[in-house]
Structures are given as structure tokens and as C-alpha cells.
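Hey, quick one: can you model this chain's 3D structure?
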Amino acid sequence: MDALLAAQDKLIAKKRDIKQAAMQQLLTGKQRLPGFSGGWEVKTLGDLFTFSGGYSASRDQLSVEGHCYLHYGDIHGSSKTSIDTEVDYQDIPKLDIPLKQVSTKSLLKDGDVVFVDASEDDEGTSKHVVVVNKSNLPFISGLHTIVAKSKTDELAHEYRHYCFQTQAIRQQFLFYAVGTKVSGISKTNMPKLTLPVPSIPEQTAIAAVLSDMDADLAALEQQRDKTRAVKQGMMQELLTGRIRLV
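Sure thing. Here's the predicted structure for all 246 residues.
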């Protein structure tokens, strides 16, 4: 059982490395998918988005009642780069306040991108999530977040799930980050970051390739988790004497 788990972990790590390499190639134009050619236009994030802050509320104010609330700690604590108000509804903390107290700039719509503005390590400086909110539920962006709302239709929603994960983007976040023990990027500096932008059809094709890789990884992780559960169950049976070796 341990050998099987080790093999599954090794395969998952290999698949993650392959996906990371694919992202660095596809999202920078170094590798092109069949049928696409021509140059990409480099845009600043200020060309593509407007930026604003979130509504300040402490973790103690959150509960299971009220409106969905995106706390920056939940962005840091998740490996996901998207949050879905339908799929993730039960897991999203709630803030019970009248919506009239919240600026419309802090209410999250489908396709908005939310970045953290504070991190205790370099890796977390560029942490973000893309909002999936097809039902347009009230969703409040919280403390220490920067909300990016589209100014144009030049970035496909599915492409946003990946385009901020390249090493080039992360290096720009680190360049503009300020602070010592806690560092972060400001709303003033966010518009200065640059992003290579392919055509919408190429964005959609790239996102489809990377989404398939994500699905493959998720299936492998599910298999690994089942193996762990079986191992844990067997250990409980053996260690409690419910099953005896012969």
C-alpha cells in the first residue's frame, strides 16, 4: 500500500511539473498551439482592468449567515485559483450586513480577479482568485484584497484562470511589492504590470489545454486520496484487532 501511494505521489508531482512547464511556454507565446501564429500584444493591467479595494471586516465578524465574503486569508490558504459561488457556496464565509454599506466596487461579479495586497512570503505576493459568479450572488471582497474589474473584453474569462501564473508575472509582483515582514503590492502599482495578450480564440485554446491538464491532475489526486482512505481503514481494523493476521 505504501509503495502504491508513493508511486501515485510521484506521478502527481510529475504531472504538476509538466503542467507548470506547459503554462510557462503557452502563456508567454514561446510555444504556439497548431493553427495560431502572429505576434501577441503586450498590455498593462491598467489597460485591461480598473482596481479597487475590498470591504474591511475581521474574521470574527464572519459566520454562516449573510452574504458571501472573500477573506484574503482564504485566498492564501487555498491552492485553487478560482472561486465559484455555486460550487463553493457552503465553504465561503458569510458577512451579515446590509449591502448598502458596501461599495459596488467591492461586490464581485463573474470574471473579476481578486489579488491579495499582503503576504508574509514572496510566494504569496501574487496570490489571486478568479471569481465565477454566474448567478450574480452578492459576494463581498474583503480586507487586504485588490479587486480587478474588466475595462475591456480582451481577456477571456477561462484564460484569466491561468494567465497570472507565469514566472514573468510573479517577478513583476515581487518587483513592485513593498514591506519587510509583510509585503504586498498596492492598487497604485497594479496597473503597471504587463501581460502578453493573444487573440481570444488562442486564449480559449490555451485555457482548454490547461483545463484538461487540471482535470487529469484532479482525477489522479482523487485516486490517491482513495488509496489513503483504504490504507487508513485497514490500519484501524488491524490496530484495533477487528482483523487478525494469520
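One thing worth noting: The first strand starts at residue 41 and ends at 44.
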